[in-house]
Amino acid sequence: MSIFSFTLIFAMAALSICLVMTAIRFAIGPTLPDRITAFDLFVANVIGIVAIYTELTGNVDFIDVAIILSLFGFLGSISFAYYLMKSTR
Amino acid sequence: MLENVNFLLIREIISSVFIIIGVMFMLIATIGLLRFPDFYIRMSAITKGATLGLGLILTGMGIYFNEPDMFLKVALIISFTFITSPVAAHVIGRTAVRNKIPFWPKTNLDEFKGYLRKDHMTRNHQKEEKEQKP
């Protein structure tokens, strides 16, 4: 096991801990905007995990998933915020 | 002399350094999300830390693969993230102010109070106009 693969596995473990902590904030977040920002960070963490997984397997095709995900995360948080602003007026 | 250099090892080391720094940024941003006392402070922590961490991780991946189309895709993802993350944070923050999400008690709101009062006055004005119309 080289230093490089150890680094990648360590990074993957750290990002998994990030996902767990984001899920805790998603569960206890007192208001709806808290949950929307937690969702935003969720998508960013998953993009990072996809990037590290691409590097771990050496398969270049997985990076297309990250492109689509970076677009859909923005769309999701914007539509949530728009719905929230529409519903209060 | 150049034949003795192991370029793969150099790329792996540079990529590892970038990935470790990026993961540390994301970890610190997530701890900030969990620990900070207020919605607005939490949102500020995420928007800066996670975006920078993601950019560093993707840069490390592009350096490891060392192919032109990979660099193009990495630049595409980084530009998407760096454009869309502040816009999303701005929209969510404005929605939170409109919905009267409470601030942390120690926040310095002296300059913001005037704007807030004006904003609520205009909103009430619009509501009254809407009620008067029918």
Automatic annotation (TrEMBL), chain A:
<comment type="similarity">
    <text>Belongs to the CPA3 antiporters (TC 2.A.63) subunit F family.</text>
</comment>
<keyword id="KW-1133">Transmembrane helix</keyword>
<dbReference type="Pfam" id="PF04066">
    <property type="entry name" value="MrpF_PhaF"/>
</dbReference>
<feature type="transmembrane region" description="Helical">
    <location>
        <begin position="36"/>
        <end position="53"/>
    </location>
</feature>
<feature type="transmembrane region" description="Helical">
    <location>
        <begin position="6"/>
        <end position="24"/>
    </location>
</feature>
<dbReference type="InterPro" id="IPR007208">
    <property type="entry name" value="MrpF/PhaF-like"/>
</dbReference>
<keyword id="KW-0813">Transport</keyword>
<feature type="transmembrane region" description="Helical">
    <location>
        <begin position="65"/>
        <end position="85"/>
    </location>
</feature>
<keyword id="KW-1003">Cell membrane</keyword>
<keyword id="KW-0472">Membrane</keyword>
<protein>
    <submittedName>
        <fullName>Cation:proton antiporter</fullName>
    </submittedName>
</protein>
<keyword id="KW-0812">Transmembrane</keyword>
Automatic annotation (TrEMBL), chain B:
<feature type="transmembrane region" description="Helical">
    <location>
        <begin position="71"/>
        <end position="92"/>
    </location>
</feature>
<dbReference type="InterPro" id="IPR005133">
    <property type="entry name" value="PhaG_MnhG_YufB"/>
</dbReference>
<protein>
    <submittedName>
        <fullName>Monovalent cation/H(+) antiporter subunit G</fullName>
    </submittedName>
</protein>
<keyword id="KW-1133">Transmembrane helix</keyword>
<keyword id="KW-0472">Membrane</keyword>
<dbReference type="Pfam" id="PF03334">
    <property type="entry name" value="PhaG_MnhG_YufB"/>
</dbReference>
<feature type="transmembrane region" description="Helical">
    <location>
        <begin position="13"/>
        <end position="34"/>
    </location>
</feature>
<feature type="transmembrane region" description="Helical">
    <location>
        <begin position="46"/>
        <end position="65"/>
    </location>
</feature>
<keyword id="KW-0812">Transmembrane</keyword>
